[in-house]
Amino acid sequence: MNIYNADDSRYNSMKYNFCGNSGLKLSAISLGLWHNFGGVDQFLNMQSLIFRSFDLGITHFDLANNYGPPPGSAEENFGKILAQDLSRYRDELIISSKAGYDMWPGPYGDFGSKKYLISSLDQSLKRLGLDYVDIFYHHRPDPKTPLEETMGALAQIVRQGKALYVGLSNYSAEQTEKAAKILQSMNIHCLIHQPKYSMFERWVEDDLLKVLKKQGIGCIPFSPLAQGLLTDKYLNGIPENSRAAKETGFLQKTEITNEKIFKIKALNTIANDREQTLSQLAIAWILRHEEITTVLVGASKVSQIENNVAALKNLTLSKNELDKIENILKG
Ligand SMILES: NC(=O)c1ccc[n+]([C@@H]2O[C@H](COP(=O)([O-])OP(=O)(O)OC[C@H]3O[C@@H](n4cnc5c(N)ncnc54)[C@H](OP(=O)(O)O)[C@@H]3O)[C@@H](O)[C@H]2O)c1
Asked: Per-residue pLDDT tens for 237-295?
């Protein structure tokens, strides 16, 4: 068996940004393990994706209790890679997990009760083979559990040392502000928010980014490439092995409409004029906000990670380019 040795030059070109007003820096690109790390996927490919990411300076790997399929298997596979190849790099890694979606049967395996969050993180730590995660998120708001209970569970998790920091995902601007204040009242800072944000999904621009800035909370947008739509992948149909073609993929073929393809083609022209790929343009466009700490991409191939990291070589967007993008997106 080959032993993995990280590239000595791994910190030479990646950018690291402070997460909100905390002292924690995150790599400007992070890798998410929602797809391509499940029991249905190839272990050797997972290793390659993690190794290449780390060699390129990506320090942040994002998981959740339910990533797979089957649920839990992404944490198991990442735990195996950590134990086999990365244990000596543990202190160079920021590993996150979450709970909030349906995970096990009965009333305690879903949403936001203290019972669910504490038990779920204990399960995640076992699957990952870790004593603690760096960031633990509540994955989605729970309309039925008092916010004080859910935030109390996050505070308890930090005090127990099972997570160093806590975050929120899919919370509205208003819910985020309330939750952050409850955490503050317990002397816990809300480190980060994980919202869906891309050129095709822009709700965060209304109020969320303002709240994050005011509260000193970092931001890590998920699905920044709209699950692959904001790349050159679907310009000429649906290729084999793409997320939209896979049975276990979350991208529905019905989302690839003619209207979207028209926009993707126009955006692709702007990207090419900048000597970039569309995914690189989509990443630069997100990182234009000072509130954004890191962009959370997914990948099925090493070449995609290389391509996405290379976006950092040209992050400047002119007013003219931004206006053209705006016109395409609104058109
Ligand atoms: N908090 C939440 O509720 C939530 C929800 C969803 C996701 N997330 C997190 O966000 C992460 C990223 O989400 P995502 O996977 O949807 O992100 P994404 O970056 O929008 O999509 C990733 C997919 O785009 C394609 N791709 C990526 N780079 C490419 C490139 N350079 N050229 C061509 N195609 C490229 C690949 O598709 P193919 O597989 O087709 O090759 C890849 O699997 C997840 O892994 C997870 O950690 C969080």
From this structure: 899 989 999 888 899 999 999 999 999 999 999 999 999 999 999 999 999 999 999 99
Q: State pLDDT tens for residues 65-108.
A: 999 999 999 999 999 999 999 999 999 999 999 999 999 999 99
**For residue 192, how far is its CA from the centre of ligand 1 (angstroms)?**
19
For residue 36, the CA-to-ligand 1 centroid distance in Å is 10
Q: Which ligand 1 atom minimizes the distance to the CA of 64?
A: 47
- Give 48: exposed, middle or buried? Use CB within 10 Å, 0-12, 13-18, 19+: middle
Query: Atom of ligand 1 at shortest distance to CA of 245?
Result: 40
What residues does each domain of the chain span?
16-330
Question: How far is the centre of ligand 1, averaged over its atoms, from the C-alpha of 199 (Å)?
Answer: 14
Q: Does residue 10 contact residue 55 with C-beta atoms inside 8 Å?
A: yes
Helix (H) or strand (E) holding 166: strand 163-169
Tokens read off for 5: 């040795």
Res 2: pLDDT: 77
Q: Distance, CA 229 to ligand 1 centroid (Å)?
A: 10
Give the position, in ligand 1's atom list, of the atom nearest the Cα of 33: 45
The CATH number for 16-330, chosen from 3.30.1330.120, 3.40.50.300, 3.30.420.10, 3.20.20.100, is 3.20.20.100
Q: Output the average pLDDT for the chain.
A: 97
pLDDT of residue 249: 85
Q: Which residue is closest in CA terms to ligand 1's atom 47?
A: 32
Alpha carbon distances (Å) from 116 to 2, 43, 106, 153, 286:
39, 29, 11, 9, 33
For ligand 1, residues with CB inside 6 Å are 32-35, 62, 139, 169-170, 194, 222-228, 231, 233, 242-243, 279, 296-300, 304, 307-308
